[in-house]
Design a protein that fits this description.
The longest helix has 21 residues. The protein folds into two domains: 85 residues, Leucine Dehydrogenase, chain A, domain 1 (Rossmann fold, 3-Layer(aba) Sandwich), CATH 3.40.50.10860; 123 residues, NAD(P)-binding Rossmann-like Domain (Rossmann fold, 3-Layer(aba) Sandwich). A six-stranded parallel β-sheet has the order 1-11-8-7-5-6. The chain is an alpha/beta fold and 278 residues long. It binds guanine (GUN). The site of guanine has 7 residues, from strand 4.
Length: 278
């Protein structure tokens, strides 16, 4: 029988711990503050930003909301970030991605002070992670480490295969698993014999963005499978990059979609905000 890794329960546990840390800060007259910037009206981004604000409210973090029109120029956005960088009452700055096409995402990410980079996307944060120095870590991969640890899944010495090499998930995920002393393989669209490589994994982490692509053929018997994907199928049902029903019986533990990795991303964002506040 396999274990279903309950991201919803684990994220609630984490958020409750953060609530206590925020109470302690408030007793010292301090309250962490997150500035959330959304440009345009992308429906998925609007939902994500709403969920982030709700999580702030639950934990007791103050959130400042900047909902800017699609027509906002890069200069205007950079000016707002500059103002928030200089505002000592703001601990974290989050610019929801993707941005409209006329805005250079890299320039925006680089404009955020690394001290307030609660998304962990700034090159300085990524560089610090790479060489083992302290800094903010991208929330989804950090949340996956937390899920594994709180589910008592050992990482050190394990074969870990990460499918996907994005800057937000695949690359930082690989670095974090390496930091936890796993032996790490990163796969991508040009990887030959993907099934064979994936079947080496004791811990298989999938972030490819293709609904139900990973079937039982990709999974070694007894592996731990972490599914980062989230897709809405026709009929509105959600699914991940992993074909859950096909794969789960062959695993020792697996994350569901929804209710696996997703809730942890926001919880880790909140953790980064509280860390910044402290
Ligand atoms: N868009 C999709 N995921 C994320 C995220 O983790 N942070 C930000 N800022 N934008 C996103």
């Amino acid at each position: 029988m396999y274990q279903i890794i309950d991201g919803k329960a684990i994220s609630t546990q984490l958020k409750d711990e953060l609530k206590e840390r925020v109470s302690a800060l408030k007793e010292q007259g301090k309250q962490p503050c997150l500035a959330v910037i959304l440009v345009g009206e992308d429906p998925a981004s609007t939902v994500y930003v709403g969920n982030k604000k709700k999580a702030c409210e639950y934990i007791g973090i103050k959130s400042l909301s900047y909902e800017l029109p699609e027509s906002t120029t890069q200069e205007e956005l950079l000016a707002l970030i500059g103002k928030l960088n200089d505002d000592d009452s703001v601990n974290g700055i989050l610019v929801q991605l993707p941005l409209p096409k006329h805005i250079d995402e890299d320039a925006v990410i680089q404009a955020i002070s690394p001290k307030k980079d609660v998304d962990g996307f700034h090159p300085q944060s990524v560089g610090a992670l790479c060489i083992g120095q302290p800094g903010f870590v991208s929330c989804t991969p950090a949340g996956i480490i937390e899920l594994l640890k709180r589910s008592n899944i050992e990482i050190a010495g394990k074969e870990c295969v990460v499918i996907g090499r994005s800057n937000i998930v695949g690359k930082p995920m690989s670095l974090l698993m390496l930091r936890e002393n796993a032996t790490v393989t990163i796969c991508h669209s040009k990887t030959r014999d993907l099934k064979e490589v994936a079947r080496r994994a004791d811990i298989l982490i999938v972030a490819i963005g293709k609904p139900k692509m990973i079937t039982a053929e990709y999974v070694k018997e007894g592996a731990v499978v972490i599914d980062v994907g989230i897709h809405r199928l026709e009929g509105k049902k959600l699914c991940g990059d992993v074909d859950f029903d096909d794969v789960a019986p062959h695993t020792s533990a697996i994350t569901p979609v929804p209710g696996g990795v997703g809730p942890m991303t926001i919880a880790m964002l909140m953790k980064n905000c509280v860390d910044a506040g402290e």
